[in-house]
Structures are given as structure tokens and as C-alpha cells.
Write a sequence for this structure.
């Protein structure tokens, strides 16, 4: 437990950020899973249409600081390669 008032405030903020980051990561995993399911099912046309949406979610995760730019670039590259 925190010993000072400032540590208590910090703990509350950290918990809020933790929940926010978890929700973004959870959404990202779902979007990526749906995209990979389309590819596995052989629905390339639908997957091609879904790819910009996946990229958008990844870029928003970078914008909010949940993931780093190199990680997202790598993921985007691999998702595009999986389509091709």
C-alpha cells in the first residue's frame, strides 16, 4: 500500500491507465483474430477490405501510447504478408 498522498494519487492514475490500455489491447486482439480468421477461411476479398481497419486500430494504439511504433510496423507488415 502507498505510504504518502502522492503515492495514493499515482496508484489511482496508474490503475486508470492500466484499464484503458487493457481495453485497447483487448480490442486489438479481437480485430486481429477476426482478420486472421478471414484469411484462414480463404475470404481474401473480405480480408483485403478489413486490413485498413486493422491498421487503423494499430495506429490508434500507438497514438495513445499502448504499443510502440516499431511493434506496430512489424505487426502491420506481417498481417499484410499473411494476406499475400
Amino acid at each position: 500500500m502507498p505510504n504518502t498522498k502522492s503515492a495514493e494519487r499515482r496508484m489511482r492514475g496508474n490503475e486508470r491507465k492500466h484499464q484503458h490500455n487493457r481495453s485497447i489491447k483487448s480490442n486489438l486482439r479481437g480485430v486481429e483474430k477476426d482478420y486472421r480468421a478471414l484469411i484462414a477461411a480463404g475470404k481474401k476479398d473480405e480480408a483485403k477490405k478489413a486490413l485498413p481497419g486493422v491498421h487503423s486500430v494499430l495506429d490508434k494504439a500507438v497514438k495513445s501510447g499502448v504499443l510502440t511504433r516499431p511493434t506496430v510496423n512489424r505487426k502491420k507488415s506481417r498481417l499484410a504478408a499473411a494476406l499475400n
